Each structure stands twice: as C-alpha cells, then as structure tokens.
C-alpha cells in the first residue's frame, strides 16, 4: 500500500503508471464478524459498544468484476448505517450479504464471514473491470452508495426503484472504511478539488439523501418561500437540509438539542431556531401515549418564529419520538418527508390531522444516480459545504462509531484511511479560500 500512497501523494503520477502499480493481495479494513452477531444479546441499544464489534483486520482483495472499480481510499466517514451494522440492529447485515450472494456467481464474493463496512469514500481509482470506459486509474473520485443491477425494468425511471437496489457498505460487502474499496463504476463521481480528502468523503450518503428528501421531485420538491422544519439541524442529515433550504430560497426552522448546535445552525445562516432542551418538549407522556398539548405548544413556537405561518415541509428522520408532532404542525396540504427513523421505526400519529387536512407523507431513501450527481455537483461548485466536525484514524473507527451512536458529534465524523494526516488532497486553493468559513462551520472555526 505504501507504493500506492506514494503515487497518490506525488501529484504527477500518470494514469498509465497507476494502472501499472501492483495491487495488494490484502488490505486494512473495518469489519464486523458473523460469529459475533449475538455478542450484545440482552443489552439495551445504547449499551452496545461499536468499539467491541468493529475490528480493523487485514482482508483479502476481492476479485474485480465487469463494470466495477477498485479505489484506494484516502478517507471515509461514519453514517448511522455503520452504527446499526456494528450493534447488529435492527437485524444483522449478514442476512443482506447472504441474499446478495445468492443472486449470481459474481455476487457470491459478498457472502463472507466478515463484512467490510462504510458507505462513503474519497480516493483514487486503482483499476477498473471490463466495460468501464468513463474512469481510468489515477482518477480522483468520491463515491455515492447506490448499488443497483438494472436488469429489471422497474429502476429505469428511478434507479432507487430497482428491485436489486442496495446500499453499498451496508447491504453489500467491501465498503469504504478501508484502505481499498470495491464499487460499481457508476457509483463514482469527481472529487470536489477544493476539499481535503476527509472533507470530500464526508458529504456522500447524507448529502445525496438530503437532496432527494427535500429538493427532488421524488421528495419534498421544495420551492422558494417554503417554511421547512428540520429536525437535528446540526446533524449529518439536518446540516445538509439546512443548507439546501437556505440555498434554495426557503426558510429553515431548525430544531436542535443544545446551544452549541444552535450556534452551528446560525453559522450556516439559519435564523429561526428551536432549542429542544430549553423548551422542554415532551411529546410522549409515557412509552405508549403521546401528548397532543405538547404538539400544540410546539406548533405555537413555530408560528411565533415564522410570523404566524405553518410548516410547508417537514424534514423527518428521528422517527418515533417526533413523528406525531411533525404531522400535527404541518400546514394544510403540506408534506412530511421521512427517512431513517433513528429513534424508532414504529411511527404513531393522529390520522385526523393528516387525512382531514390533505397532508402527505412521502418516504425517501438515499438518492438515484442523477440526484447523487446533482448533489455532488453543488458541493464541487461551493454551493453546498461539508459538515465535517471531527476526524479519526481508521484504527479508531470504533470510537468514531460510538460518537455517532451516542450523538456526541456534530455534523459528520470523518475517518482517515490511507491519508496519513488531515488537510491533504486540495487542488483548488482559490475556491477553498472563498468558502473556508463555511467549510469549517461544524468545526467551530
């Protein structure tokens, strides 16, 4: 791997020279193990520790198939799907790998006793399989996490509807928290060159997800002037949703949990902020009963901030804890877009407020190829910025996942893979200087 890293850092290595580099037989990777899926049995979710279940192992380099690419990973990032994988909730991801392995002779590679995790990367293409024409060895890239087969007709209008749609590094093997990753070549996109490796790796999953959920016609179809309620506005998803609202002429109403996170929302340019800890909302009286009086109090706070207006679009991802309130506060004819459900999948709401007021609930999951490219293009042009707050080395990936699991982080937590230190990989210093304040917004600089 040292020879590969030296070629990347040289800065002038040709595509032909990259193609001539010998590929390693094995590489470092963050894995979970099939024989440990019961290790946390009986423990509450919050007591399940990713530091115990995520291992940094040396694993065999996978065979390169048609339409695929091997990428030297300079940096990656933590998403909630890595947390779920590491605590084996709501199900073990080895079931995903087993099902994928039954699809074809080629996909059998994914069904292994270990799972290389991670759904983000920035890095350099090392090799491509038969049929790949767009990307050459040496190309500096990021990857989105949509993996599809596209052999069925269903996905050809919206690739997210392909029956074989999967999230790379979660429902497939050979993910991005490693020194090398295996991706489908159509996952690759140009690296935004005003960003460091770790900054460029961090938007990936959450940026594309926020774009589809809020901006795309497949999601909220946001327009200028909309009032957008954003839960967790300084988190991985919410940080991008806040930027898209501001960038698109909407008014974000940002819900955060403390003053530190409120300050981040203000640094992004948001003005209407609800600090949950200060307001003390208790949407549930107990684990079985919600409190409509608290929904009403929450709605009154929103109207106070907006000058009497209700919410046009709710950017929903906490799920169970907040969904009843989200449905209630949405205006007549408004939209609740939902993904993730980080506080629980079993949503409860009063259907009278939905049905009698013609509100809509729209499900949203990651993004299709076009939406991913649009989201990455906006980052590359300096219109949308990374939300990176802290970066760990690959050897500390368990601690990085624990931070996210316990919500100790702001924005995104990055992970250096091959990159020996932070701050490397920038080629466009002029564009970077223009946006440095926004790039550092989640670092408190």
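^ structure tokens above, recovered residues below v
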């Amino acid at each position: 791997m040292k020879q590969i890293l030296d070629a990347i850092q040289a800065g002038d290595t040709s595509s032909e020279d990259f193609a001539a580099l010998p590929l390693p037989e094995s590489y470092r990777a963050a894995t979970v193990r099939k024989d440990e899926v019961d290790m946390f049995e009986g423990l509450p979710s919050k007591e399940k520790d990713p530091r115990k279940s995520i291992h940094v192992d040396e694993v065999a380099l996978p065979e390169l198939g048609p339409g695929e690419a091997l990428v030297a990973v300079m940096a990656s990032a933590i998403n909630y799907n890595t947390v779920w994988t590491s605590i084996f909730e709501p199900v073990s991801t080895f079931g995903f790998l087993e099902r994928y392995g039954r699809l074809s002779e080629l996909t059998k590679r994914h069904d292994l006793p270990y799972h290389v995790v991670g759904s983000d990367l920035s890095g350099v293409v090392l090799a491509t399989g038969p049929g790949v024409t767009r990307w050459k060895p040496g190309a500096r890239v990021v990857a989105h996490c949509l993996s599809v087969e596209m052999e069925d007709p269903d996905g050809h209008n919206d690739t997210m509807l392909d029956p074989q749609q999967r999230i790379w590094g979660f429902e497939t093997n050979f993910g991005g928290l490693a020194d090398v990753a295996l991706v489908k070549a159509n996952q690759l996109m140009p690296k935004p060159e005003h960003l460091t490796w770790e900054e460029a790796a961090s938007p990936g999953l959450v940026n594309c997800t926020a774009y589809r959920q809020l901006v795309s016609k497949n999601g909220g179809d946001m327009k200028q002037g909309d009032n957008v309620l954003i839960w967790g506005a300084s988190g991985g998803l919410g940080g991008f949703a806040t930027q898209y609202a501001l960038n698109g002429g909407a008014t974000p109403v940002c819900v955060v949990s403390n003053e530190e996170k409120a300050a981040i929302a203000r640094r992004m340019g948001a003005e209407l902020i609800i600090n949950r800890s200060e307001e003390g909302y208790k949407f549930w009286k107990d684990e079985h009963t919600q409190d409509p009086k608290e929904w009403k109090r929450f709605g009154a706070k929103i109207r106070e901030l907006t000058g009497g207006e209700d919410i046009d679009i709710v950017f929903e991802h906490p799920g169970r804890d907040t969904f009843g309130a989200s449905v209630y506060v949405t205006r007549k004819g408004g939209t609740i877009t939902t993904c993730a459900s980080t506080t629980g999948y079993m949503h409860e709401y009063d259907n009278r407020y939905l049905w009698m007021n013609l509100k809509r609930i729209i499900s949203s999951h990651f993004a299709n190829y076009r939406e991913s490219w649009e989201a990455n293009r906006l980052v590359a042009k300096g219109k949308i910025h990374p939300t990176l707050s802290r970066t760990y080395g690959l050897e500390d990936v368990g601690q990085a996942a624990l931070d996210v699991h316990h919500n100790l982080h702001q924005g995104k937590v990055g992970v250096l893979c091959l990159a020996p230190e932070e701050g490397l990989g920038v080629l466009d210093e002029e564009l970077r200087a223009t946006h440095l304040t926004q790039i550092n917004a989640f670092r408190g600089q």
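The chain has a mean pLDDT of 96.
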